[in-house]
Amino acid sequence: MTPAARVQAAIELLDQVIVAARDNGPPADRILAEGFRQRRYAGSKDRRAIRELVYGAIRVCGPLPATGRAAMLRLAELDSAIAPLFDGSGYGPAAIAPNEKPAQGGIAPEWLVEALAASEIEGAEAEALLARAPLDIRVNTLKASRESLALPEIGELLPAPSGLRFPYGTQVEQWDAYRDGQIEVQDCGSQLACLATGVQPGETVIDLCAGAGGKTLALAAAMANKGTLIAADTDRGRLSQLGPRAERAGAAIAETILLDPGKELEALKKYAESADCVLVDAPCSGTGTWRRNPEARWRLTPAALTRYTAAQSRLLDIAARLVKRGGCIVYVTCSLLDYEGKDRVEAFLANHPDWRSEPPQLPLGRERGQGIRLTPYHDGTDGFFIARICRP
Fold it and tell me: What CATH number is given to the structural domain containing 166?
């Protein structure tokens, strides 16, 4: 493919990404995968270049662009090599019209920029949300140790005790250590969220929002496969991924429970007031993960944020019914909005005056309300809010 043809292909894929963001369609990575399947003539270098163009354009547009062409024109304002490729020749994009306007730049839609600023995420802090994320792994201590594991490349030691960092794009999935379950891809911030639980072998631990099980596997390793570890979630598709992952990692999961929304306590009644720790990795806006999913900021609406905060409060109340005396809830969101972080914990403590906050002692992060906040700018991790709330 010519450079101009790559730009045109990126514009066409951006059109699909924009429609999907507006209509709650598939994520950008899935759109690109399908787009490349349909463009079998595109070689590996073509696909890599097109992907860079698509994500580059997504990152430099604040509000949702009107078209993929407008998004690419915005990128062309910042990359002088792109504008000459709008030459109208061959399979390239049409020439730029004299009055043609590019998409608007910025960090996010205006209402979301204001919400971030109200949570003291602005300036360089906000800009860092759209930088490229490195690739972090967690060494699975059920099978290996960070000190003794031999890998094809040397990783940077992370503050997380089993964490290593590699450059973006490192193909760790092709390594024997990955296939053998000795390593898992997991952001350093996510690893620290698991560290905040302080779980020990022999305890009863519930991962209430387990998803595909990334944190569940980290908890199993921390517990040395001793005790009772329960993984629960309402998403059947994501929860079904945990079984094969646990088998590969050698992780012992006592029970996997598919929850019916609104009837969670019914499914978990045998664990009422029995857990030493309940991890609530709550569904959220994902503002802390924009480095990996930059189009997510186009999908978020004020109404969706309201639904998230309601769900987060409800999940904390459910967790409180599962924790035994002397146990704790560890509340985690990959969001940097106070609505979803410190405000939720403060509301919980106001409604449960006998509970107390014990902010986790972590090697990274800064105090935010009754918890700890990690940010890409200060900590080099995804954005997280982490709080530890204990029942006396």
Answer: 3.30.70
In a domain, 71, yes or no: yes
Total number of domains constituting the chain: 3
pLDDT at 38: 86
Last residue of a domain, one of 161, 185, 209: 185
Is the model's pTM score more than 0.90? Answer: yes
Expressed as residue numbers, the domain containing 334 is 192-390
Which residue among the candidates 61, 277, 334, 390 is catalytic per the annotation?
334
Tokens found for residue 182: 């000795």
**Pair (269, 370) in one structural domain:** yes
**Residue 334 is among the residues annotated as catalytic for this protein:** yes
Are 265 and 221 part of one and the same domain? yes
Structure tokens at 355: 């509970």
| Per-residue model confidence (pLDDT) at position 83 | 94
Give the C-alpha separation, 374 to 354, whole Å. 28
Q: pLDDT by residue (tens digit) across 373-388?
A: 999 999 999 999 999 9
pLDDT value for 37: 87
Same domain, 255 and 355: yes
Question: Are 309 and 284 spatial neighbours (Cβ–Cβ below 8 Å)?
Answer: no
* pLDDT tens by residue, 83-124: 999 988 888 999 999 999 999 999 999 999 999 999 999 999
Same domain, 208 and 164: no
Cα-Cα end-to-end distance for the chain? 65
